[in-house]
Specification:
Blueprint: H1 18-21, E1 35-36, E2 43-46, H2 48-71, H3 76-99, E3 102-104
Antiparallel strand pairs: 1-2, 2-3
Helix pairs in contact: 2-3
Bound molecules: zinc ion.
Zinc ion binds at residues 9, 11-12, 14, 37, 39-40, 42.
Amino acid sequence: MIGLKRFNCPSCGYRFSWRERSRFSDVLGLKRRAAACPGCGTELTWDKWPWRLLYLGTFGLMLAVILIRFLLPETELSDLLLLIVELPLITVILVSAYRLRLIPATPDSPPGSDSTA
Ligand SMILES: [Zn+2]
């Protein structure tokens, strides 16, 4: 299937199962966590932006559905409004989910280039 490779280790190609992928986030799945690849020992983590957008999109979608459903009477207008708000958010979620992949966990500020070696 297309896209399955993003759940492979970028260094050695080790394929992570669903269960193993849960190691890359905390118990609630809200925070990214680095974990070592069982194949080669490289520290891996989820790519930052797809991960963030996936959560922002999901959170925004839940919020939008709750707000519109509770604040507005159920009419064709509220259905339409919900659709208008939902579609971009669903797009963000789908695109983020598609782009989500494991990358080597490197510090935010990589070491500068060698001065004298
Ligand atoms: Zn590996």
